[in-house]
Protein: Heptaprenyl diphosphate synthase
Organism: Fusobacterium animalis
Amino acid sequence: MIEILLKEWIEQIKYYIHLIADYSIKESQVGAVLDDVLNLSGKMFRSKLLLLCAFLGSNWKNNKEKICKLSAMVELTHLASLIHDDIVDDSPYRRGKVSIQGKYGKDAAVFAGDFLMARIFYYGAVENLNEAVSILSKTVEYMCIGEIEQDLCRYQEDISEKKYFENIERKTAVLFQAASYIGAKESGCSERIIQKLELFVKNLGLMFQLKDDILDFTSNSKELGKKTHKDFQNGIYTFPVIMALKNPKAKEVLLPIMRKNKEEKLSLTEILQLQNYIIQFGGIEASYEKIKYLSTINRQLIKELGQNSEITVYLEKMLNDLEVEK
């Protein structure tokens, strides 16, 4: 039932995504760029989160149109952030497809991301969705702070766990929280439920980023849909690296690679050697342990929601999927 309901509502959200991103120059080259932007939309995870949180309220059936509009605004915010991420990371691919900056260049990609943000806020203003505009504006502010802070930490050999989690909470988890709040609020959830959902999705966002950081070392580019080891090569040392470095023996072999990485591009042999060291010295194992720790907290939060429904079962499934070791 919940799968069917999500599928039905997602189709409506896709309609609003195209409506919000509508433009008067469809037949031009600019139109082609923006069509490619919308084709990058993936599993719509954040939209599903917003809907699941909304379904826990009492007023979602009577508020379908507005909730779908808000979900589309959240999804487009995420899409705009991905375009900018690919520019910063100099990534030629996104989700197995050529990225916008890979196909059209960085300048066009910057403006495409900016265009989407402008359309989101314009649409929100025209539709009188002022609270959502305010929330998403603040969310984008935090996302930018997270990205700036992360950039300022590049090549730091002693970056702490605390700083790592501060950065990923701002650049990743905060949009999860915005989605949950908007969905739960619009469907009439109580403040108690909203607060528990915000904590749940914050942890889910952290788990999501941790899993992405793990896969950067354990998957190949084809499986991941983007280049692997890119964060490390850009001097962004993620949780698996931080945890591996806690082993004194790991420091002896990892620090020389990290220092060389700052000065010149690593060879494929060195990258594979790095990957083996991260696994050998427990970086991946520790990252999965952190995911399981956050998952345990979230399972308790699900119980505290006081509901036994298809929705809570679906939320449990999300946790299970993130816990699976690959």
